[in-house]
Amino acid sequence: MKKFLVVFVVSGVLFTSCVKDHIGHGGENEDVDVSALTFSKIGGFTNGSGDEGFAEISAFDSKTKKLFVVNPIENEVSVWDITTPSSAVKLASITLTGTPNSVAVFDGILAVAVENVNKQLNGTVQTYNTETQALLNTYNVGALPDMVTFSPNGEFIISANEGEPNDDYTVDPEGSISIIDIQDNEINTLFFTSFNAAAIGNDFRVFGPSANIAQNVEPEYVAVSEDSKYAYVTLQENNGIAVVDLNAKAITNVFGLGVKDYSLPENMIDASNKDDIVGNFKSWPVLGFFMPDAITYAKIDGSEYLITANEGDSRDYDGYSEEERVKDLTLDSTIFPNAADLQLDENLGRLKITTANGDSDNDGDFDQLYAYGARSFSIWNTSGTMIYDSADEIARKTLEINPAYFNADEGEADGRSDDKGAEPESVTTLKIGNSTLLFVGLERSGGVLVYDITNPNSPAYLNWLFDATDIAPEGLIAISKDNSPTGNALVIITNEVSNTVAIYEMK
Predict the structure, then answer these.
(1) CB proximity list for 46: less than 8 A, separation 6 or greater
(2) In this structure, are 373 and 457 located in the same domain?
(3) CATH number for the domain including 190?
(4) pLDDT tens digits for 96-151?
């Protein structure tokens, strides 16, 4: 039996906020008292009838009121009419050759990132008319296009081409970023060759077989500046971000994100799933690579920010793996005189760390322990300087509100404490009058945390949108009231394990 440090449980799916704010869209001047702001689950559906993986990423078209849902199991984009969110209607799907990974919509055009049947070969971005669902164009891009988005002005489609190796690690395509100029039907796929001789620093990681930067980078997710001039692309396994000049069609900068120090009191973690205590926060001699998955851009009071979901990820293949548990390592006895105690399962023994970093003197024992992810969201300026990190806020807040889902592993409390905790996976923002809301999807604990980031230096927690039947949120969309079928702002959550799509309304 797990022991809970906090026993207060919140059930149900309706949560309310007691924050005064203004509700609107973009630069609207409309002021509404939302001191009784509610987030209500007003609709949802199950996409597919299999075990899991039938619903991952979604995109909404305000013209047709269609929701396009990536269904990689059936190699299709599932299409739903959500004119009435409480009773969504399934429409004819878009069938693909190859596996879809991501979708995006702009002005009646749907873009789909499709990996090759042999995912080490170049993939495509396919565009469709959202009304007729007819194919408009097919663009050849790099290997394993994992995420696709439009620039805010609609001139560009940008895809992050991850370029993952095969399982034997004998074929490893270069990661790349493709820029599609829609008006000219011009494709520019950018590689990282010019950075091979660069010393990027700040804990940017280049490791494993064929370890040069061009071969090693794995672009994951794209955010685009409000003026459509720059794209910011997470390089998750590398612990960095690439900056792309969209007009010049060039990668202009790559920077590392540093590490999080779990020995500091504000960064305490529960590091074990075998300590029989849910929420056993302690300081540990461990550093965490931020390794963000999703990234989003926000302009607040004239300043530009990047917000990341610091999920963490490892390379774990038959041909190469960096994963190991602390208990299975040889620790430097001078640096870790208490190694035997640290390596107990109830302490650090169960924690997964990387073997690619940490043996600083190459003598076969570990001088530093590096974990995957930061168990947080972070706000950065566009040069990579941290403005804010949520520290241990996500773990403590979920424990406080619903301990049964703390660091959960598909509903088992504490099940992911030895890995990456709640696993912040996705982020998006929504302008609410003069305020900016941030939504953070938690892949393991479930649901979406809502923050007011109008002051980026001091975000304020507002809410946790949570339903136990929705498992493993992957996709996250915030829809302004101007584009919503209900006339109120919506949050749409696509859940990979439960195959469900949940629709929440703000009013």
Answers:
(1) 55, 498, 499, 500, 501
(2) yes
(3) 2.130.10.10
(4) 999 999 999 999 999 999 999 999 999 999 999 999 999 999 999 999 999 999 99
pLDDT of residue 7: 36
Task: Tokens for 425, please give them.
Answer: 């996976």
| 8 A C-beta contact, residue 167 and residue 210 | no
Secondary structure class of 85 (helix, strand, coil): helix
CA quadruple 435, 244, 424, 321: dihedral, nearest 10: -170
> Quick one: 403 and 293 in the same domain?
yes
* Amino acid at position 50, single letter: G
Rounded Cα gap, residues 223 and 160, in angstroms: 10
- 300: β partners: 303
pLDDT in tens, 417-433: 999 999 999 999 999 88
Let me know how long the chain is. Answer: 507
> Are residues 173 and 218 located together in one domain of the fold?
yes
Same-domain pairing of 101 and 187 = yes
Give the Cβ contact number of residue 32 at 10 Å: 14
Picking from 251, 248, 250, 246, the residue whose alpha carbon sits closest to that of residue 235 is: 251
Residue 23 has pLDDT above 90, yes or no: no
Residue pointed to by tokens 């706000």: 379
Indicate whether 481 belongs to any domain: no
Q: Whose CA is closest to 107, among 58, 150, 76?
A: 150
pLDDT at 14 over 90: no
427: containing domain = 1-36+258-466
Q: What does R_g of the chain's alpha carbons equal in angstroms?
A: 22
Residue 442 host element (H or E): strand 435-442
Give the whole-angstrom CA distance, residue 90 versus residue 385: 45
What's the structural domain count of the chain? 2
Residue pair 239/246 in contact (Cβ under 8 Å)? The answer is: no
Domain-embedded: residue 44: no
Give the helix/strand (H/E) hosting 398: helix 393-401
Residues 6+ apart with CB under 8 A from 39: 14, 15, 16, 17, 450, 463, 465, 491, 504, 505, 506
d(CA 182, CA 63): 20
256 and 204 Cβ atoms separated by less than 8 Å:
yes
The residue ranges of DSSP E strands in 236-276, in sequence order, are: 240-245, 250-256, 259-261
Q: What is the pLDDT of residues 32-83, one digit of tens each?
A: 443 458 999 999 999 998 899 999 999 999 999 999 999 999 999 999 999 9
**Nearest Cα to 238, choosing from 271, 207, 269?**
207
Q: Is the pTM of this model over 0.90?
A: yes
Whether 479 maps to a domain, the answer reads no
SS3 328: helix
Query: Which position has the token pair 């190796």?
Result: 165
